[in-house]
Amino acid sequence: MTSKMTSQSAARRSAGAAESVAGNGLLDRRIFLRSGAVFAAGITSGALTAPAAGAQALQIEPWMKTPGAPLSGYGQPSQYEAKVARILTPVPGQTQIGTSRTPLHLLEGTITPNGLHFERHHSGVPDINPDAHRFVIHGLVRQPLVFTLDALSRYPMHARTTFIECAGNGALLFQNAPVQQTVQQFQGLLSCAEWTGVRLADLLDEAGVDPKAQWLVAEGADAAGFSRSIPLAKATDDVLVALYQNGERLRPSNGYPMRLVVPGYEGNTHVKWLRRIKLTEGPAMTKDETSKYTITLNSGKSLQFVHPQECKSLITRPSHGLAMKEPGLCEISGIAWSGYGKIAKVEVSADGGRSYAPAMLQEPVLSKSLTRFRMLWRWNGGPATLQSRATDETGQVQPTRAAQIASRGSRTIYHWNAITSWGVSDKGEVKHVYA
Ligand SMILES: Nc1nc2c(c(=O)[nH]1)N[C@H]1C(S)=C(S)[C@@H](COP(=O)(O)O)O[C@H]1N2
Ligand SMILES: [Mo]
After folding, report:
1. Smallest CA separation from ligand 1 atom 5, residue
2. What does the angle CA 212 – CA 218 – CA 219 come to, to the nearest 5 degrees?
3. How remote is the CA of residue 172 from the centroid of ligand 2, in Å?
4. Pocket flag, ligand 1, residue 126 (CB < 6 Å)
């Protein structure tokens, strides 16, 4: 204990200006490698540094004195983690229509546990009997095909880790004043999973696509008959008819027994409870793609079929609702993603964008997937403005708020991807600010 404390204070001294990588306390992560537990000293409470703390911390607790709970068929989170849950944001006056949001600020890594994947239902979750469900491919094909779940399960399986983000994620950020909400509340229509299923390309190959077909329309078996058009080039590139979500069958709310996964494309194209795919010459102009999901610019002109979700990142820790406890070393952590490919770089600023330093990206960095980034910070107890700025492998850079409003205007609620700023006060409170 004593020798550890000595090396900690030495390391604290060495974490000086020489290790600085950008303004207001951003530090080179490598000081960890040289100085061991320097970080723990920053967050350890006074009690634990007292002389007898080691022995005290190792007292025999009640749960060590008797055998624990029995085995269980399907595991559940610890009772102490009950706050790590989706929040429900239904359309006012409804229970089945609306969204529930992923607690991004309370999760780590890049994969969303299935029970916390966000939900967006236009007409509730159908209770589909998998034995009765049929999936049809028809339209401009040589041979229409009908699949049962069993038939589909015999095809070669492919797995793909990819995010799904609702086109309306971050809609409140178009407002003139910064909303004081958690990341979950205003950016929680975003999740990431490993999806396993059959490549749509293989099924289309078997059906024999007519050369006249350039698009398809996919329809769900929910009461909304939700349907969206997708270009054939995308459908034969990397689209899956997914049957599994993080290794288990899809959850009913995420499309059981089968859904489209359209990597990088806006969430609404990932049609759940997939019932049919019809090959067509042009887009079908369904109600779901004319009444919604067009981006109206300030000029009054609307952009339609803006499919990929743009390059974006968010600091999840610290963030609104997760206050700083005390000055010292901490890790800034967050997620970055792009519907165009891999994340190439995430830069972090603690001084409102005056200076940036590149964050560490957690491996593996996968295309069209969430990427975790980390940056070491020594908070000096003064005010700070934290930002992250992502760049993807195609060179797309996450815009500032001003640049986003200038290019897309403020008449739309879709495809918000600008930089989010967190203002840290000298009390450690974290507020959402426009910087
Ligand atoms: N059949 C059907 N598919 C659907 C929807 C729906 O309401 N019905 N919602 C869409 C929208 S708008 C989004 S953002 C995603 C959300 O997928 P998730 O609920 O699995 O997160 O599903 C899409 N697929
Ligand atoms: Mo959505």
Report:
1. 121
2. 140
3. 14
4. no
Cα dihedral 388, 391, 392, 397 in deg (nearest 10): 110
Mean pLDDT, all residues of the chain: 92
The burial of 111, by beta-carbon neighbours within 10 Å (0-12 exposed, 13-18 middle, 19 or more buried), is given as middle
Longest dimension (CA), the chain: 80
Q: Is 267 in the pocket of ligand 1 (CB under 6 A)?
A: yes
* Whether residue 117 has its Cβ less than 6 Å from ligand 1: yes
Burial 385-394 (b: 16+ CB within 10 A, else e): bbbbbbbbee
Nearest to 196 by CA among 227, 153, 235: 153
101 lines ligand 1 (CB under 6 A): no
Compute φ and ψ for 244, nearest 5 degrees.
Answer: -125, 145
- Write down the number of H helices and E strands in the chain: 11, 26
CA atoms within 13 Å, Cβ hemisphere of 276:
11
The alpha-helical segments, DSSP class H, found in 271-388 are 287-290
Q: Which domains does the chain have, with CATH numbers?
A: 122-166+193-292 (3.90.420.10), 312-433 (2.60.40.650)
**Secondary element (H or E) of residue 147:** strand 145-147
How many angstroms is it from 286 CA to the middle of ligand 2?
15
- Atom 12 of ligand 1, residue of closest alpha carbon: 268
For ligand 1, is residue 309 a contact (CB within 6 Å)?
no
pTM of the full structure: 0.93
What residues are paired with 397 via a beta bridge?
391
Please report, in tens digits, the pLDDT of each residue of the chain (435 residues total): 334 434 444 444 444 556 899 999 999 988 766 665 455 544 444 445 555 677 778 899 999 999 999 999 999 999 999 999 999 999 998 888 999 999 999 999 999 999 999 999 999 999 999 999 999 999 999 999 999 999 999 999 999 999 999 999 999 999 999 999 999 999 999 999 999 999 999 999 999 999 999 999 999 999 999 999 999 999 999 999 999 999 999 999 999 999 999 999 999 999 999 999 999 999 999 999 988 899 999 999 999 999 999 999 999 999 999 999 999 999 999 999 999 999 999 999 999 999 999 999 999 999 999 999 999 999 999 999 999 999 999 999 999 999 999 999 989 999 999 999 999 999 999 999 999
The pLDDT tens digits of the residues spanning 46-64 come to 445 555 677 778 899 999 9
Do the beta carbons of residue 94 and residue 218 sit within 8 Å?
A: no
